[in-house]
Amino acid sequence: MNKTLIEVTARIQARSAATRERYLAQVAQLAGRKRGVERMGCANVAHAVAAMPANDKLRIVAERAPHIGVVTAYNDMLSAHQPYEGYPALIRAEAARQGATVQVAGGVPAMCDGVTQGLPGMELSLFSRDTIAMGTAIALSHDVFDAALLLGICDKIVPGLLIGALHFGHLPCVFVPAGPMSSGLSNNEKAKVRELYAQGKVGREELLKAESAAYHGAGTCTFYGTANSNQMLLEAMGLHLPGAAFVHPHDSLREALSREAVRQVLRIAPRADYTPIGRLVDERVIVNAMVALLATGGSTNHLIHWVAVARAAGILIDWSDFSELSGVVPLLSRVYPNGSADVNQFQAAGGPGFVIRELLGAGLMHEEVLTVVGPSLQAYGRVPTLQGEASDQLVWQDLPADSGDESVVRTAAVPFNASGGLKLLQGNLGRAVIKVSAVPEDRHVIEAPARIFTDQEAMQTAFKAGELDRDVIVIVRFQGPQANGMPELHKLTPPLAVLQGKGFKVALVTDGRMSGASGKVPAAIHVSPEALAGGPLAKLRDGDLVRLDAISGELTALVPAAEWEARELATIATAQALENGAGLGRELFAGMRRNVRSAEEGAISWL
């Protein structure tokens, strides 16, 4: 086992001792109760089963059959979640074959960040995670279930479902994915058209044609953003069936895996090999997720989300833990925006199974941990396939020793980089993170004058006017959780890429988010504390020299110390502050904006 991995895990265990002990005591207390229908009053039971077929009522009440609750994030606004429409019927049919019963316990909201990018709805995106967690809790609060299946894939949905499920830590839970869409227009070609549009060289018609060719069918978007990073992390945590993440929605293997998920959750239900999610997700499993994120250059959103996930299980992690692990975890995959491949090519080259096998072999993951298929992560280094005369027998097989495509996935012996894709930055501007796996090495250190904005639109206007055609560090502040829900700022990427392509030294510094699509421009994001909370980003002025050094981990305003100390904090304009909280449902989230913790604390609104 790698020394740093052991040390970071031990530090997290020590830091979390009291909170984890309290959490596990609650799990044990809830697990020790009688089954739901046996401890509930007759009226409660009657309400719970009122709409079920008579034979299912008999199974639950008289035969004491296992009862599965399904929490689904189905809607057909999200291409990734559209396939879930038929899952309840499939799950019920398979459960009936196993002598069990099923109820859809509840649905949770699921918004598409691709639809809301750059629009007011994006200001609800981060808070939708905790809303989903609360929706999961409401679904499971009926408290009649022996186990749960969780149906969700995309950005805030998986973390929300997981946070909610961990608050019912006594329940065995299995996540059931639905897979990525088939490959369309390549991500590189899509990015080129976006840059041309930003320069005014192509029009809306050409841009829409390109975007529609990229996002064209059912399934998850094919770049390695937050949604697909979610799937990688769930594999590394042992919460999927092994290899379930990136099988196409309409592949026959997908249905076989979904049926097996029903069978598997029944195996780990209380009367079998009881594996409650609260015991499964321990400090070592959280570290395994962190390692998987770093080894694949995954979404920076998870430096927020997995802090919150860990906290839901009584485990305390911070960005220093990620940064220390990043120093020893090699980068084993390049998937767009860290390379040109999409997730289908990643899957074909070996996918999550190849990465997990290599990390285990290098002593960079904890192997002897609980998973939904047993007490070892080794199973997740294999891949599922259908065999037999009718191609209906689900089996797992070993992967080849070598990568299927070394431009996409590599062994731990010859990685793309010796260290992971994320770095902690700190200095007199606060603490931030940067995703360096896609940034050219000659751009890891940028020193340039600051140009300050308080929204994406003002930056776009300045870009179009030619005001940014120079070495510049663009500052976009008052974009943190308290200010406006910390939206993703993807509208900044094309113009910054254009400026970098012209040869200028450019970077972005913001207390907002960029997620898994931050790309090749150096971006110090999630700056904490945020400007609205009195963070030092509010001290910056136009023209201040700023240094972003991803090698030394520095984020500093090069202003004399006495002057910096004496500066007053800038404030957000009253009109903008009012606009951030009004219209299109944003008023409903005022309480979350008031109570939310910092990005490094997971932007949690429920503590």
From TrEMBL:
Where does the record place the Dihydroxy-acid/6-phosphogluconate dehydratase N-terminal domain? 66-378
Q: How is the cofactor bound?
A: Binds 1 [4Fe-4S] cluster.
Keyword field contains Zinc:
no
- Domain Dihydroxy-acid/6-phosphogluconate dehydratase C-terminal positions: 408-603
The gene from which this protein is expressed is: edd
Q: Tell me the Gene3D superfamilies matching this sequence.
A: IlvD/EDD C-terminal domain-like (3.50.30.80)
Name the family: Belongs to the IlvD/Edd family.
Quote the EC number: 4.2.1.12
Q: According to its UniProt record, what is one Pfam family this protein matches? A: ILV_EDD_C
Q: Which reaction does it catalyse?
A: 6-phospho-D-gluconate = 2-dehydro-3-deoxy-6-phospho-D-gluconate + H2O
Tell me the function of this protein: Catalyzes the dehydration of 6-phospho-D-gluconate to 2-dehydro-3-deoxy-6-phospho-D-gluconate.
Protein name in UniProt:
Phosphogluconate dehydratase
Cite the entry's keywords alphabetically. 4Fe-4S, Carbohydrate metabolism, Gluconate utilization, Iron, Iron-sulfur, Lyase, Metal-binding
Required cofactor(s): [4Fe-4S] cluster
The UniProt record gives the binding positions of [4Fe-4S] cluster as C154, C221
Which GO molecular function entries does the Swiss-Prot or TrEMBL record give? phosphogluconate dehydratase activity
Give the record's pathway.
Carbohydrate metabolism; Entner-Doudoroff pathway
Matching PROSITE patterns, A to Z? ILVD_EDD_1, ILVD_EDD_2
The enzyme's main class, written as a single word, is lyase
